[in-house]
Write a structure and sequence with these properties.
The chain is α+β, with helices and mostly antiparallel strands. The protein contains eight helices and 16 strands. Strands 6, 7, 8, 9, 10, 13, 14, 15 and 16 form a nine-stranded mixed sheet that branches. Strands 1-2-5-3-4 form a five-stranded mixed sheet.
Amino acid sequence: MTATKPKRIETISAPADAVEPEDIDLPAAAETLGYSLSFVVGSDEAGERLDRFLAGRAAVKDAALSRTRLKNLIEAGAVTIDGAEFTDAGAKIRPGQNIEVTVPPAADPLPRGENLPLDIVYEDAHLIVVDKPAGLVVHPAPGHETGTLVNALIHHCGERLSGIGGVRRPGIVHRLDKDTSGLLVVAKTDAAHHGLAALFADHGRNEPFTREYLAFIWGVPNRASGTIDAPLARHKTDREKMAVSARGREAITHWELCESFAGANGKPVASLLRCALETGRTHQIRVHLAQIGHPLLGDAVYGSGFKTKAALLAPEARSALEALGRQALHAATLGFPHPVTKEALLFESALPDDLRRLHGCLAENAPSLG
């Protein structure tokens, strides 16, 4: 099938107030077919960041683009400056430059089934428990429209998934980050969805509920166990990150020290924790452990300041960490009463191969501290 050429919106030149957004008519079909926008930088806009400039100038009727969306488009190569592709969202613009943004056609809002491998741990008429591999996105989102767990579940279950989560997230009650591996339960019926949602909201306060993760961290805590009680909210400047905030939502993580490992010089360098969630906020364990000075190994977002610590590892462990390419976090245990039958369910997942190798190298190539 021949691709449809994006609809072009006529050039909007500086100064910004020369054309009011209300005066520009974006055809309704543009959302489906895609479109492009073209701007000329005015003298009063010199030195402005590319993404900020575009966010301010792209307020076209029915085509407003957020700064985050524009940043993604820039990094995807959908923006040109004077005809040359430009991928640096923070670049400073100059007067007279012609900047064009190509907005691709809207994605199909209905995820489609895809024959992707699924590691099914348990399944009945009401729910399904899967062991998610690292690298798999849970549900479709901008930049990940296909190849997600939801696409695989739709292929496997057909229409037998709860619709409460909406067409983009059928059956999804909770999530794991793309690069976190481990156990995840999905509702197949509305009754199961309601019951599981209540369980996750209750956080085990009134009914038995277990969510435990294995986490490899930098450093060694000064005690055998502890609790991190620190509310979380979206980061003030980076909306893709979370941060501890007094105005955030309640977030509580309990942790227990399982093992500690020495580096090549025999000094403490890393540990393995078992973390139990009392709440389930986005990036909760990652942010909480970074907050107490023990970020996850391999966490490029919340542990970026610890990259040089890798030099302290024995060569084999350092190689295993470099090969990991993700945060060293695994959802190892999931236990709850069945939302319909009330049967007690408990599932455990062993470390996947990449984390098993990391663990083996940390333990075998340097003396363990206990």
